Every structure is written in C-alpha cells, then in structure tokens.
Amino acid sequence: MPVPGSAVADAYARLAEVFPALAVTELGPGEELPRGGGWVAASALAEGGAGLERFLAWDDTQVLRDYGQRARPDVIASFGLHRYAWPACLLITVPWFLHRRVPRYPVTHVSFDRTAPGLAVGRMAVRPDGFACLPGDPAAALPGARVVPDEEALRAEVRAAVAGHLEPVLAGFGPRMRRRGRALWGMATDEIVEGLWYVAQLLGEEERGMRELELLLPGATKPYVGAAAFRRLTGPGGEPVRTRDRVSCCMFYTLRPEDICATCPRACATDRTDRLVAQAG
C-alpha cells in the first residue's frame, strides 16, 4: 500500500497499472525492509558477498533450465545486474517522468524479490529518503522535499539519484563481470534509457519519453557513458521505426551467437539498421 502523503505513491500506482510485472511497495515509518525468502537487500548486492552469490544462483539456474547450458560466471553476473538495475532505475525515473519528482534511495533503503509468483520482473520494497521537485509543486510542502530551480536542475537530480543508488551496486557486481568503471557506467546508461523508454511506450508517450531521455543523457554526463542515442528510421512501408544504439553489450550472444540484438554495439550500424527494418517488415 502507498504511504499516505507520499510524493511518489501516485507514480508507482500508475506504473503498476501499465506494467503489472513489477510491484513497488513503499514502507511506512518504522517498517523494516523485508528479508528472507526471495528478498535481497540492495546493500547485500553492494557488499558482493554471500547475498550476491545467492542472488546470482537464480540466474545460473534459469540459464541452465532455459538454454540447456551453463553461462560463464561473468555473463551470469551481467544478467543479474541487468535484472536488478533495470527496475531499480524505474524507482527514480518514473516519478520524474510522470510528476517531476525525484526520490533518493540509498542501497540501505531498497529490497528486491524477483521470485514472487505472477510478477515477471519482481517486487521492490522502498523506504523514501527525501525527494527533489520543482517550484510550485504541491508536494514541496511534504516532509523531505527539496525544491530545485528548473528542469535542468531536476535532470541533474535524476542523474545523481540513480548514480547514488547504483554506484555501490556496480562495485559489488564489477569484480564478477570482468568490467570496470567505464563499461559498468555504460551499462547503467542503457538501463536508465531502456527502462523508461519501455514504460513510456506502455503509457502511450513514447515520443515524449525519447525527448526527455535525450535531454537527460545527451552524452558527457559523468559518471554515465554515452547518450540516449535514439535513432528514428523508416520501415519498408514508410512506417516509423524507433531504435537506439546501446552503449554496452547484454552478453546474450554468448548463449546464442546467432541472436545478435538489433541494438547491439558489437554489430555495425548498417547491420543494426538492416535487422530493424527487416523486423518492421
């Protein structure tokens, strides 16, 4: 249930309407983060120890079940990070996109359970830790509000909030992934963009979502690597085809070499375009 008076409750309720595969629960004052069962605290992932090991065992089992082979340990870690970071970014980007409110969530304030029945992505429990908003927002009167002067300042808050949450998580996963600094932040860039882009499509606001993401991540916004990098192509029947150039590789090719994603940076731009146009046809 949403916390009464929460600045982000309406955004999470709307997210649940269009994307029921992910459930977000805000914790009230004094409520502990859930633990045990399928729950894992984000702080445990950041520590990189037994909690992360248990988390990645799920990916190892899933890959063996679905593909009949084991993936390399670094590939398993990449899959696991994606499956956490993609919904974790939505905790911040969806309230910003819908209501221009940017919550902060230290890793000590989030737990994740991807084993919940009926939820393809999983469920997240969060404890609010303040938020940023624009002048004139009625939520500015709520506890924990911090007013910033304009849209660009609010975009800076989004970048900082995601970085503040993901940086320790990346540090926990990094040694297992054979990836460091720049490569990890390139992956973070992709998670921000592709998560909100998908939700914007579900909301019927894809073009606005793409414009907002282009402003949020135009490139050279450290610690992120790369830009939103959208491309608008034309299909064989004249229909618009929207795509982007990923910064990082999802590593799925290690399981199915013939299944290169249409946005994969391992493929040249011409090959990516040809694949997308063929799919559109």
Describe the structure.
The structure is a single chain. The protein has 281 residues and is α/β, with parallel strands linked by helices. It folds into two domains: 9-224, no CATH class; 229-281, no CATH class. It contains eight helices and nine strands. The protein has a four-stranded mixed sheet. Strands 3-6-7 form a three-stranded mixed sheet. Helix 3 packs across helix 4. It is globular. 36% of the residues are buried.
Short description:
With 281 residues, the protein is α/β, with parallel strands linked by helices. The chain contains eight helices and nine strands. Helix 4 runs antiparallel to helix 5 (151-177), helix 4 crosses helix 6 and helix 5 packs across helix 6 (181-202).
List the topology elements.
Layout: H1 9-18, E1 22-26, E2 39-41, H2 42-47, H3 50-67, H4 73-99, E3 101-103, E4 110-113, E5 122-126, E6 131-133, E7 145-147, H5 151-177, H6 181-202, H7 206-216, E8 230-234, E9 240-244, H8 269-280
Parallel strand pairs: 1-5, 6-7
Antiparallel strand pairs: 2-4, 3-6, 4-5, 8-9
Helix pairs in contact: 1-4, 3-4, 4-5, 4-6, 5-6, 6-7
